Amino acid sequence: MVYTGRFAPSPTGPLHFGSLLAAVASYLDARAHHGRWLLRIEDLDPPREVEGATDNIVRTLEQFGLHWDGEVIRQSDRHAIYNDILSQLTNNGAAYRCSCSRQQIHKRSNSSLYDRYCRRHPPTAKARCAIRIRCDRDYPFDDLIQGYQQFSDQTEDFVIFRRDRCFAYQLAVTIDDAAQQISHIVRGSDLLESTPKQIHLQQQLGYRQPLYAHIPVATNKQGQKLSKQTLAPALDERQALQLIIHTLDFLGQKPVAELTDGTIEECLSWASAHWDIAAIPKQTGIILEES
């Protein structure tokens, strides 16, 4: 199968350096394998979306020379597909309705992990419910960067449709990766714990499992991941070349000094030719030093 990678940001604000790390790593891994690189906008959560963010993301990627293949897919256009598969999972007994709030779960078990209460006590037909998928085992996997991963202490029946009537990330991303025939997923290590859940859904739905590679995320000095919630600044398109070079350095790619005198296209071409995923630090987070 042809190598197919993807970058899948949420339109909750402008891209920042943490976003750039995931975009560049996934882009270069795809290009180094002479593969395809797709762009998917994960707009599943309307209350968190920022007006104009999708257009801003598209423009920023173009300014940074990160050109994708094919059309841009938006999850908001795919609700009917998600709903059909959700019905399939509930009809065959793989998923069930759950009326439990986070507060109720924590009160019963003193934990955020779900205790499967609604498996034993089905809610009434009128109850406002999420939908959870049954998951009774862990799904360890070999990560191309971080190595063998196992999260047996995190196994639970997880939500695939939220109480606020939104499709959950785990369901949508699994369906879309399969639909787009994604072969390799290169993304931030903050999503490591999501991977077993997605593997479980892949097995439930008969999908092929992609290969996973989780890069270290950039953190502030307090150890918090750079994000919109931690007020990470938006990328400055005027500094695109310098930021790309900084990204390569963060990812352990040892960019040569001559790149500073070239163009973005020349920089990305060099990086594709010299891409070495084995050089990426085997850490889940690295404090971002000012460049």
Task: Please explain how this structure is put together.
It is a single chain. This protein has 291 residues and is of the alpha/beta class. It has helices at 17-32, 53-63, 79-91, 102-109, 117-120, 169-179, 195-205, 240-250, 264-273; strands at residues 4-7, 36-41, 73-74, 95-98, 130-133, 141-143, 147-149, 158-161, 184-188, 211-215, 217-219, 285-287. The radius of gyration is 20 Å and the shape is elongated. The two termini are 39 Å apart.
Secondary-structure blueprint of this entry?
Layout: E1 4-7, H1 17-32, E2 36-41, H2 53-63, E3 73-74, H3 79-91, E4 95-98, H4 102-109, H5 117-120, E5 130-133, E6 141-143, E7 147-149, E8 158-161, H6 169-179, E9 184-188, H7 195-205, E10 211-215, E11 217-219, H8 240-250, H9 264-273, E12 285-287
Parallel strand pairs: 1-2, 2-3, 9-10, 11-12
Antiparallel strand pairs: 4-5, 5-8, 6-7
Helix pairs in contact: 1-8, 1-9, 6-7, 8-9
User: How do the SSEs run, as a string of H and E?
Assistant: EHEHEHEHHEEEEHEHEEHHE
Q: Major sheet: size, sense and barrel closure?
A: 3 strands, parallel
Overall pLDDT: 95
Indicate the radius of gyration in whole angstroms: 20 Å
**Relative strand content:** 15-25%
Question: Given the helix and strand composition, which structural class is it?
Answer: alpha/beta
The total strand number stands at 12
Helix content: 25-40%
The shape is: elongated
> Which spans have pLDDT < 50 for at least 5 consecutive residues?
none
How far is the N terminus from the C terminus? Answer: 39 Å
- How many separate helices? 9
Biggest sheet strand order reads 1-2-3
